[in-house]
Amino acid sequence: MTNIASAGFGKPVLALDTSTSALCVAVVGEGRVLADDRSIVERSHSVLAVPMVKDVLAAAGVTPDKLGGIAVGCGPGSYTGVRIAVTIAKTLAWAWGVPLAGVSSLEALALGAAGDGGTEADSAPEWIVPLMDARRGQVYTARFASGGGWRRLAADGIRLMREWADELAEQAESQGERERPRRIRFVGDPSLHLASIEQLGERLNGRVRIEVCPTVMEGRSIAELGIRRLAAGEADDPHALVPNYTQLAEAEAKLLAGRQEG
User: Fold this and answer.
1) Which pTM value belongs to this model?
2) Is residue 130 a contact partner of residue 189, using CB atoms and an 8 Å limit?
3) Which stretch is the leader sequence (predicted)?
4) Cis peptide before 76 (omega within 30 of 0)
5) Residues 100 and 132 occupy one common structural domain
6) Phi and psi (nearest 5°) for 4?
7) Residue 25 — very low, low, confident or very high, per pLDDT cuts 50/70/90?
């Protein structure tokens, strides 16, 4: 992704996300990434996140009073992981008195794979489908269109991958020749769901190009989405912002089921 919205935004923005195995932090300003860092050690997010925020701010030469806001990935994703970034972002936004913008981690994952920010007006449409494994054949996923402008086509949710592949095939087949995507790109972590993706390709039989492009979350993508919200005058209440868990954690689901049976 090369198109950073901060070119038209006054102050730098701190961005962070812990929804996946990648802890990522970035400071974006003046239309470019001023500093960023990333760690692929999921179980260490709670230990590394705050020191990484401090280090990235120092590397960017930005103090809290110079920030124009904080952008944070709100999930969906790892149940425990999502809470780490959201809690830190809420605390810092309140303590520093800066605007807070929660964004979709799935959209950031997709946007990071969309080339020039998904803004090419004259490109043939393509669909970008982010995937995060949710176990038991399920994925956290959504669908976006790049080319002719960036558009969301399906809400964030947890879906059975085989059913999601069938739905994507039906959606692609229902499009007219001009509207049909030239390709569908699966980004994020598709490694456990290749069989369903291959079946999708067989069903579309060459009419739509299928690509598998493993990608890792980038702080700059979180910042891009946050800046778009902040530039539009949108912000979240630090006390009210909650992660998008999409589903209850397994332990909570069992507890709720037990209460309902009782």
Assistant:
1) 0.89
2) no
3) none
4) yes
5) no
6) -100, 125
7) very high
The secondary element (H helix, E strand) that includes residue 53 is: helix 45-60
102 within a domain of the structure (yes/no): yes
HSE-up of 223 (CA within 13 Å, CB side)? 31
Task: Tokens 């080339």: give the residue.
Answer: 115
Closest CA to 249 of 81, 43, 23, 16: 81
CA distance 85 to 95: 15
Cβ 142 vs Cβ 156: under 8 Å: yes
Gap between the terminal Cα atoms of the chain: 51
Beta carbons of 103 and 40 less than 8 angstroms apart: no
**Parent domain of 23:** 5-106+217-255
**pLDDT tens per residue, range 172-224:** 999 887 788 999 999 999 999 999 999 999 999 989 999 999 999 999 999 99
Q: Are residues 170 and 138 in the same domain?
A: yes
How large is the greatest C-alpha to C-alpha distance in the chain, in angstroms?
59
**Shortest CA distance to 109 belongs to which of 126, 130, 127?**
130
Same domain, yes or no: 251 and 174: no
Asked whether residue 261 is assigned to any structural domain, the reply reads no
Instruction: Give the distance from CA 208 to its chain's centroid.
Output: 24
Helix axes 45-60, 79-96, angle to 10 degrees: 40
pLDDT tens-digit series, residues 143-156: 999 987 899 999 99
* DSSP count for the chain of H helices, then E strands: 7, 10
